[in-house]
Design a protein that fits this description.
Belongs to the IAA-amido conjugating enzyme family. Keywords: Ligase. This is Indole-3-acetic acid-amido synthetase GH3.6. InterPro entries: GH3, GH3_C, GH3_M. The protein is an alpha/beta fold and 580 residues long. It has 19 helices and 22 strands. The strands form four sheets. The chain has an eight-stranded antiparallel sheet with strand order 9-10-11-16-15-14-12-13. α10 runs parallel beside α14. The chain starts with a helix and ends with a strand.
Length: 580
């Protein structure tokens, strides 16, 4: 296990000559993968080792579509061991991507690569060392309210398992005998391996309330997952107290194994404990509720950057004095960067790019034009502070000059390795009218102007209409005045100016096209409470991992729009600053 001092020494060694380590990384990848079919058309004519300049000039930039048919071949078991498609290493399984702008997640092949394992191990050990320095272990208080979901593991036609990346480590902990010794999660393994995310979430809360005094922290992959869980706590605390008092979980929990494990965990009626929680929750003061319910908790940890930034204020409200810790820059495809100061809020979170995690390239990105400036990339030594870039990676596991779809801003250097901030997901095409960043900023302004709590939001650009139009879907907190039938007229008046503030925040390209008449008035739909939870359930049903689910911000699937419309909504059309 890496200590913090060892991490610092290792990171200093890697970043003092980051460009050299990058070239070594690329050399190792190409030397090992020289025979793969994907690279043959581009590099087979090269004599001897391929340097970085030759690699970048001959191998084109790629996206998931370039690998789609090869990944399907692998999934179907169409594998020629004498002529590997993407990697010379054996294929172990597939990971689901966490993207949710469409209803079907991508499949990322996971090859048994010793080089990748070493790089990933160093990254995760470094992350753990930073965490342990800030939150040293306590033997008596050593459990975590961890909203962990093993997710469904499916099998491809070729017999390969498909799962979330976060599920993979759990596959070796299926027996009850070693679960509590190897996993810090407070809940029994049957809860983690359950089949209904709402019931699993409820049972995670119930188990953590039962043993409230040994909870050291609260953890989820993304801030959105924590907000959903704390919202459930806020709405179902009375039922949770009833269950503690009776010693049995709600009859709604239909999974027999999960139910039996929770009954055993509760250990009979907990009348005094139930009374304590009722007294706390009955005050209806949810600010700082986490330290009231779990007084020994030292931290709340989740990714809060990118599209998760919107949840941070609400998370701080629940957390009170409990410190919020951010995550690292890790993706399903590879590790990218490590967060050396995990206490920073999302707007100040920076990642040191790891020179041995993959070979990185950076495409200059013009935020005003919503696109990259050509196909020419720069490497670690070519990036400039203050500039934005789309990241491309060449990994140990069969992706070559792969456009990750992330936009980062270079804010400095750690020795010679770039220090980056995550900005947003890249637009899929140059025709996209607004970005994730534009939308988040616009909705933030809208929320401040209404003084109402926006629970969730997303947008869809409808190119089928003439002129094309942008539709924004907004879900208010349940009970919001704008959704009350008896106050419809009053709500319409209040929203009149608010919708114009939303449209005004949509970014320069939107404004220019709107002024030219190329875009029709903005359509704003106020959807019923629970609409976005409905999208979550359908996404999970279609294979999206519950543990890695990120609510979509830029919707590109008409199917998702259809689901939202079916849920019921009130629409307004903004024209000349008026809500009609």
């Amino acid at each position: 296990m890496m200590t913090y001092d060892e991490l610092v020494r290792n990171l200093e060694d890697l970043t003092e000559n980051a460009a050299h380590h990058q070239l070594q990384t690329l050399h190792s990848i190409l030397q090992h993968q020289a025979s793969v079919s994907y690279l043959q058309p581009y590099l087979s004519a090269c004599d001897g080792p391929v340097d970085a300049a030759t690699f970048r000039s001959r191998v084109p930039l790629s996206s998931y579509d370039d690998y789609f048919h090869l990944i399907n071949q692998l999934a179907n078991g169409d594998i020629d061991h004498h002529q590997p498609l993407l990697s010379a290493d054996p294929l172990l399984c597939f990971f689901y991507s966490s993207g949710t702008s469409t209803m079907k997640p991508k499949l990322i092949p996971y090859f048994d690569s010793a080089l990748s394992r070493a790089a990933s191990y160093n990254a995760h050990q470094g992350s753990a060392a930073i965490f342990r320095k800030l939150v040293p272990p306590r033997p008596e208080v050593n459990k975590v309210l961890w909203f962990l979901y093993a997710d469904e593991v499916t099998t491809t036609r070729g017999g390969f398992k498909v799962m979330a990346a976060s599920t993979y480590p759990l596959q070796g902990n299926k027996s009850r005998s070693n679960w509590s010794q190897t996993i810090s999660c407070i809940s029994p393994r049957e809860v983690v391996f359950g089949t209904n995310i709402e019931h699993q979430m409820y049972c995670h809360l119930l188990c953590a309330l039962r043993n409230f005094d040994i909870i050291d922290g609260i953890l989820a992959a993304y801030a959105a997952g924590l907000i959903r869980a704390f919202s459930m706590l806020e709405s179902k605390w009375e039922k949770l107290c009833d269950d503690l008092e009776s010693g049995f979980p709600s009859l709604e929990i239909a999974d027999a194994a999960m139910r039996e494990s929770v009954v055993e965990f509760l250990g009979g009626p907990q009348v005094d404990l139930s009374r304590r929680i009722r007294e706390i929750c009955a005050e209806s003061n949810w600010g700082g509720i986490l330290s009231k319910l779990w007084p020994n908790a030292r931290y709340v940890k989740a990714v809060t950057t990118g599209s998760m930034k919107q949840y941070y204020p609400k998370l701080k409200h629940y957390a009170g004095d409990v410190m919020i810790l951010g995550g690292d820059y890790f993706a399903s495809e590879c590790c990218l960067g490590i967060n050396l100061d995990i206490q920073q809020p999302p707007e100040s979170t920076r990642f040191v790019m790891l020179p041995t995690a993959a070979y990185f390239e950076f495409l200059p990105f013009d935020l005003n034009e919503r696109s990259v400036a050509g196909e020419e990339t720069v490497d670690f030594s070519g990036v400039k502070v203050g500039k934005m870039y789309e990241v491309a990676v060449t990994t140990y596991r069969g992706l070559y000059r792969y456009r990750l779809g992330d936009i980062v801003s270079v804010v400095g250097f750690h020795n010679s390795s770039p220090l980056v901030e995550f900005v947003m997901r890249a637009p899929k095409t140059a025709d996209e009218i607004i970005t994730e960043k534009d939308l988040t900023s616009a909705v933030d302004s809208f929320q401040h102007s209404t003084a109402a709590e926006v629970v969730e939001f997303a947008s869809f650009s409808d190119y089928e209409l003439s002129p094309k139009r942008v539709k924004v879907f907004i879900e208010f907190r349940e009970g919001c005045v704008f959704l009350q039938e008896e106050k419809l007229q009053e709500s319409a008046e209040a929203l009149r100016s608010c919708c114009s503030s939303l449209e005004n925040g949509m970014g320069e390209i939107y404004k220019v096209q709107r002024d030219r008449g190329e875009i029709g008035p903005l359509v704003v739909s106020f959807v019923r409470s629970g609409t976005f939870d409905g999208i979550l359930h359908i996404a999970i049903k279609n294979g999206a991992p519950a543990s890695q689910y990120k609510p979509p911000k830029i919707i590109r699937s008409p199917e998702i729009v259809g689901i939202i419309n079916k849920s019921g909504s009130r629409k307004t059309s903004c024209a000349s600053g008026f809500c009609l």
